[in-house]
Design a protein that fits this description.
By secondary structure, the protein is an alpha/beta fold. Helix content is 45%, strand content 12%. The protein folds into three domains: 134 residues, Ferritin (Up-down Bundle); 280 residues, Rossmann fold, CATH 3.40.50; 34 residues. It is globular and about 85 Å long.
């Protein structure tokens, strides 16, 4: 059975279980099971390669002990084991206190995980299907990684869970433009399911990882935080799928909960790649962690302030922000001024509002900046939906090749040789300042629609309203005559 068929059959089995309600629960259920199978396969490989290696999971709770035998426990016995032994013990695994403690990874994954299934017979069927995937087979694991990406894509239709997903074409483009290298400390402070991390791993492996030492250097320089339990679990599993031996760098925490001034030189990073949550509000008290002039409950604004602080000199960032962050006033204005004074905001890619559909239909922007020198000028690129297509959708999403024209125009690492065209224009920092740091700047090359002379239009409107009034009076007269008959 192919991996794709396996995943589809698992989802079909889960749909029969009365305890699993909707895509988000089904994906969460799938995730903790896949996590245990993947880490068990990884453990068995490490046991052969490393003398004295011990699994972070107690022997009786390892996948091979209770799940691998297709004729093993089932029904109420299986449900009882999962609910009264497996989950309680994994939620309370004592840490070893050693570096690279995989026990903490397991405990963090299960901290807010749940078993939604109510049928032990159906659970056994699911377990048997998962056991058929060998995650130590590189080709099979890579194929499953592609399937997992599709599973994460399903989150777009899972209500609010869609907020964790950034279109892969967008993440791949941002990573390609930032061009991370092994050893550069790369941080995603709101990592969701790990899209920027997986794209960065793929990018570096294709371009720069030539030796085992390069791989180790790359993995040690990754940093990530995710606040919510479901995407955290999905991200950790995603890291295991993508060959990360210790995904403990993915912390289950709120990056904004730590005081702004407590981030010091030792916390500085070379690269930030992120799509911070926008449109939401932080809980009471979070804004007090920030300086008075940056205080707001708007999540995206707080993240932008923190990203600027976290970058090392010459550090670079690519951040997704909504249109509101570009034209907003008050704290937003102070943030944009601070950004342009501390960093070179060299490029803004403007995306149409259909890129993040269906769970968000607002205009978004990709901001690219480097820490250390103030902005002299900012280039804008307006991305347009391909010809013959009115908008992006779930069935016709944005693809990496749709951004090829922007990549070709970009001008390499130095961004030299850029020219203005119907998609690209530049604005000086002085002009942006004169606009009150309003970055919602439309293309000067677009031709505004000619709606006609305002006085003529007003006269036509007055005439139309007078005609409507005459017709209403005529209708009233006709109705009155009819009632008198």
């Amino acid at each position: 059975m192919s991996v794709r068929t396996t995943v589809k059959s698992i989802q079909d089995i889960m749909r029969q279980d009365s305890g699993v309600d909707g895509d988000a629960q089904r994906i969460s259920q799938l995730c903790w099971m896949f996590f245990l199978k993947i880490i068990d396969d990884q453990d068995q490989e490490l046991e052969m390669l490393q003398s004295g290696y011990r699994s972070p999971i107690p022997p009786a709770l390892q996948w091979r002990a209770w799940a691998a035998d297709p004729e093993g426990i089932t029904g109420d016995d299986l449900l009882g084991f999962v609910n009264t032994s497996l989950f309680p013990e994994l939620k309370n695994l004592p840490p070893t206190g050693l570096a690279g403690d995989r026990r903490r990874v397991v405990r963090d994954v299960f901290e807010d995980a749940y078993n939604y299934m109510k049928s032990g017979q159906l659970m056994r069927q699911v377990v048997n299907r998962i056991s058929g995937v060998d995650f130590n087979n590189l080709a099979e694991r890579q194929h499953f990684g592609d399937i997992y990406e599709q599973v994460l894509n399903d989150l777009q239709s899972a209500g609010n869970a869609g907020e964790y997903y950034t279109p892969r074409a967008v993440t791949a483009f941002m990573v390609d433009r930032i061009d991370p290298r092994p050893g550069e400390v790369l941080f995603d402070p709101a990592c969701g399911t790990g899209g920027f991390l997986t794209c960065s791993l793929r990018h570096m492996r294709e371009k720069y990882v030539k030796r085992p030492e390069d791989e180790a250097t790359m993995q040690k320089a990754l940093r990530a935080v995710e606040k919510k339990p479901l995407p955290h679990m999905l991200c950790v599993t995603n890291m295991l799928l993508h060959g990360v031996e210790d995904p403990g760098f993915v912390r289950h925490d709120n990056t904004l909960a730590r005081p702004y001034i407590s981030y010091t030189q030792s916390d500085r990073v070379d690269i930030v790649l992120t799509n911070p949550p926008f449109g939401g509000r932080e809980e009471d008290g979070i804004e007090s962690n920030f300086p008075t002039h940056f205080r707001t409950r708007e999540t995206a604004d707080l993240f932008l302030a923190l990203i600027i602080r976290l970058l090392k000199p010459r550090g670079r960032a690519a951040v997704v922000l909504p249109d509101g962050s570009l034209f907003g006033e008050g704290v937003k204005t102070r943030l944009k001024e601070h950004l342009m004074e501390e960093c070179n905001l060299h490029t803004i890619v403007r995306l149409p509002n259909s890129v993040f559909r269906p769970y968000a239909s607002i205009g978004t922007n990709l901001l690219f900046f480097e820490k250390g020198t103030p902005t002299a000028e900012t280039w804008f690129w307006e991305h347009q939906v391909p010809a013959g297509q009115k908008a992006y959708s779930m069935t016709r999403p944005i693809r990496f090749e749709h951004l090829a024209d922007c990549a070709a125009w970009w001008g390499g690492t130095t961004r030299a040789g850029r020219t203005e065209n119907e998609r690209a224009w530049k604005v000086s920092a002085a002009d942006i300042k004169a606009r009150g740091y309003n970055l919602d700047i439309k293309s000067p090359h677009s031709v505004a629609d000619d709606h006609g002379d305002p006085e003529t239009l007003l006269a036509a409107l007055d005439a139309a309203e007078a005609e409507a009034a005459r017709l209403r009076a005529e209708l009233k007269s006709i109705l009155a005559e009819a009632l008198l008959r």
